[in-house]
């Protein structure tokens, strides 16, 4: 499945680009993610805990991160397995940073493949809505880290804890709002 996201960070392009090159700090802003080992040459081992529908999974895996400073683009490729439930996942994320008035626009294009039991609960609409919510949390964390006055203050800022209940109700609320917008938009 393909998921595309765009968001704007109220910080200069160079500052956001430098942050994206610090993979451990980026991981601290990804809800449910944890880097466990830096292997060198842009390779990392880590964990990703996620809730897919009523199912909780904990993927252990590897990721490769590459970036091109000239074009302000990057690629993250990862794969992992949930040892408890037998689910597997692969992801390839391509991102572009563009300086805009008032900050930096981040465009992300992710190709995600989930197999095994988690795939049964991972409806496209649910995963897209949950990813939208997680991007909001990531953006808040990123902006908090970039606004921090000291290194210690920045390191203390981490991703919000992922709650399956809050994601569910947040996703439900977003679906209701989107439905109302379509309904009202159709009558104007």
Write a compact overview of the structure shown.
The protein is of the alpha+beta class. 39% of the residues lie in helices and 40% in strands.
Give your account of this protein's structure.
This protein is an alpha+beta fold and 188 residues long. Helices cover 39% and strands 40% of the residues. It contains six helices and seven strands, in the order βααββββββαααα. A seven-stranded antiparallel β-sheet has the order 1-7-6-5-4-3-2. Strand 4 and strand 5 (73-82) form a beta hairpin. The radius of gyration is 17 Å and the shape is globular. The model is unreliable at 164-172 (pLDDT under 50).
Task: Summarize the SSE layout with pairings.
Layout: E1 2-9, H1 13-20, H2 23-28, E2 33-40, E3 43-52, E4 55-68, E5 73-82, E6 88-100, E7 103-115, H3 117-121, H4 124-147, H5 151-156, H6 164-187
Antiparallel strand pairs: 1-7, 2-3, 3-4, 4-5, 5-6, 6-7
Helix pairs in contact: 4-6
